[in-house]
Amino acid sequence: MPAAPIQFYNRYTKSIETEAIYGERWLRLAYENPVGRFMVWAFAKRAVLSMYFGWRMGWKYSAFKILPFIVKYNLSVDEFAKKVFDYRTFNEFFSRALKKTARPIADGERVAIFPADGRHLVFPNVDLAEGFYVKGAKFTLAELFGEDGLSPDQQVLTRKYAGGAMAISRLCPVDYHRFHFPCAGVPGEPRLIKGALYSVSPIALRRNINYLVRNKRKLTELESPVFGSVACFEVGATNVGTIVHTFLSGRPVPKGEEKGLFKFGGSCTITIFQAGRIRFDDDLVARSRECVETFARMGDRLGEAP
Known about the structure:
ten-stranded mixed sheet; 24% strand; 2 domains; alpha+beta
């Protein structure tokens, strides 16, 4: 039986589209049959494979992959901050900056934005976030914050964000791979939560949504005068062992300022607001209830403070 295509709703064309998956054959082999899942257990979740691909895509000859990649996935070169032939390696191209005008930031100090380009799911109550990739499967805040091994009294962040609102922004290899602050505020020190490097493609997440809380990830709390405390996660994935931050802790940031970048691969961000601090846009909530991701770009509206 042919594998089911990965589909999402495009917020701009207002239509259901089928995702072009980079490395689809490998992902389906790795996550949709027993032999492949053994390969994932043995190799892909370990840093050595990510290190190898990172080294390979940082090699000067990897630059020859750039133009075919642009053509195959119909990327808009007009958005790039540099000319195509100025990228020295594929990794440099992959984590490219865009022109300032390429991602306009939604107006309004009470409006929060998507932190990254990608396919998004929103959950007005994170405690009810289950069954969206795998029916009946869920993960807990304690696992996400790396507090599952602590006693309830020690689970400070889990209690702080209980009942909060969560947005999962899944980036594909074809996407812009820099991530930004969803609102204005003061960022704290980032914290590394150690883990593996599973894929965050829906091909993998449909097998096990817990890959999101098993993967290496970084957490930064952003203190916002409008939205309160906001937990900003960057989650590593297969071939994206490197999460690079470009901001300064303790320095106030405007909405949409760059927070960092992912190196080669696909990955995701997770943004959690405290209970009662944001109302996600209705179209996002409606699609998410149907278990359909919505494609939207960094800077577009995510929701508004009530």
